[in-house]
Amino acid sequence: MLNKKSIEDIDVKGKRVLVRCDFNVPLDDQLNITDETRIDGALPTIKYLMENGAKVILCSHMGKPKGEPKPELSLAPVAKALSKKLGKDVIFAADNNVVGENAKKAVAEMKESDVVLLENTRYRAEETKNIPEFSQELASLADVFVNDAFGTAHRAHCSNVGVTDYIKTAVCGYLIQKEIEFLGNAVNNPVRPLVAVLGGSKVSSKISVINNLLEKVDTLIIGGGMAYTFMKALGREVGDSLLETDYISYAKEMMEKAEKKGVKLLIPVDTVVAKEFKNDAESKVVKGNIEEGWMGLDIGPETIKLFCDALKDAKTVVWNGPMGVFEMPNFAKGTNAIAKALADLDATTIIGGGDSVAAVNQAGLGDKMSHISTGGGASLEFLEGKDLPGIVALNDK
Ligand code: ADP
Ligand code: MG
After folding, report:
1. Is 265 in contact with 222 (CB distance < 8 Å)?
2. What is the pLDDT, as a whole number, of residue 181?
3. How far apart are CA 366 and CA 376, in angstroms?
4. Neighbours of ion ligand 2 (CB under 5 A)
5. Is 80 in the same domain as 225?
6. Strands 270-274 and 295-299
7. Sign of CA dihedral 353, 358, 359, 364
8. Which protein residues touch ligand 1 with a CB less than 6 Å away?
9. Residues 18, 141: one domain?
10. CB 233 within 8 A of CB 256
11. At what angle do helices 333-344 and 301-311 cross, to 10 degrees?
12. Whether residue 204 is found in the same domain as residue 73
């Protein structure tokens, strides 16, 4: 899955190139874009194509219009923002059926280095069902396909998978190339020791990740809400903490697997517990058992030390899931300490998962990490060892 052609491996001059971007940006009531990170992320690929004389046709989804035109989810504001950033008018093809008269006319009139943006691909009901009709329409506009939307790579839709049935040359853009390089190498060809840090709320949502990573890592660190199910499996009381009773036996199984594989598996030795799920709730640090009436909301100071020590010699670290309820400042210490430890390491550090990325950015340490994944769900499936259809569909090297 990792040996995929990129835009640099093909000739794009004079070609009509359809690029699937991730322009799923947040808008306010006035339809102003409130965070342009995703647009900025798409620029390197777009600029490369413009500089190399391609006719650049961009497409993306935004939000969930559920298969019909919704003016508040139009990509028109993205066309405006792009025009400013590229210093060139981006033609917006305002077709409610995405590939309509406006798009066809705009594409027919394109010259080299021109840029056209199509309307929200999810205005079409076929998009998320990967129905050939819409894939074919999209394909009819272009000679070459580029996928640069990692956030949807774990889904097989018309605009990232179906379209490759009709356009033979299909390659990745810079964003996806970087994701494949970092996530792929970390999981399949890491510089060791490889340490994975897993947290977040639930064991159940990350079962396959734990299982797959135990095949790969030297050390697995488990914190966050999922840790209590592991503690319970070790016979410790967890009070009112998050506990998934159905997964206690699974946690046991994973600890046995770790032992068999010679993987060091670390779980918290102390916990910051609180009376209520509130930032200013009464709180204290406890070791061992957690009493009834108290819930664990963060890892304790000894655990921070234990985890940071285990990270010290790491050469590759993959982190998915916060160590505590980092949204509340009083319970963000564990998460912030791990973020700081990673930032200070001389290692490849990779952050995946929407909330983990938010936590690292909240700590102001985003630019200290080697790679921050642009797709929460997609990076999770990657860590589960699954093939992502949006990447599988691209041409091999
Ligand atoms: P990611 O998006 O990085 O994959 P998750 O979505 O799995 O992470 O989990 C993030 C959520 O887990 C956060 O909202 C955080 O508050 C919550 N969480 C972490 N530790 C605990 C805990 N001890 N109790 C309850 N929730 C927790
Ligand atoms: Mg999340």
Report:
1. yes
2. 92
3. 15
4. 354-355
5. no
6. antiparallel
7. positive
8. 199-201, 205, 224-225, 242, 296-297, 320-322, 324-325, 327, 353-356, 376
9. yes
10. no
11. 20
12. no
Cα–Cα–Cα angle for 342, 238, 283, nearest 5°? 70
Local structure of 137: helix, strand or coil: helix
Q: What pLDDT does residue 374 have? A: 82
CA of 106 to the centre of ligand 2 (A): 39
pLDDT of 163-182, one tens digit each? 999 999 999 999 999 999 99
> Is 161 among the domain residues?
yes
Shared domain check, 348 and 199: yes
Domain match, 131 and 257 both: no
CB atoms within 10 A of CB 315: 15
- For residue 262, what pLDDT is reported? 97
Residue 150: CB atoms within 10 A of its CB come to: 27
Nearest ligand to the CA of 224 is 1
- Which amino acid, one-letter code, is at 110? M
Instruction: Identify whether 337 is part of a domain.
Output: yes
Number of domains in the chain: 2
Active site residues: 38, 202, 354, 377
Low-confidence ranges of the chain (pLDDT < 70): 1
Among residues 105, 137, 106, 115, which one has the least CA distance to residue 124? 137
For residue 325, the ligand closest to its alpha carbon is 1
Helices of type H across the chain: 37-51, 76-86, 101-108, 132-139, 174-179, 185-188, 207-213, 227-233, 248-261, 301-311, 333-344, 354-362, 376-383, 389-392
What domain range includes position 348?
183-383
Task: Please tell me whether residues 221 and 106 are part of one structural domain.
Answer: no
Q: Which of 226, 270, 325 to mutate to test the pocket of ligand 1 (most atoms within 8 A of CB)?
A: 325
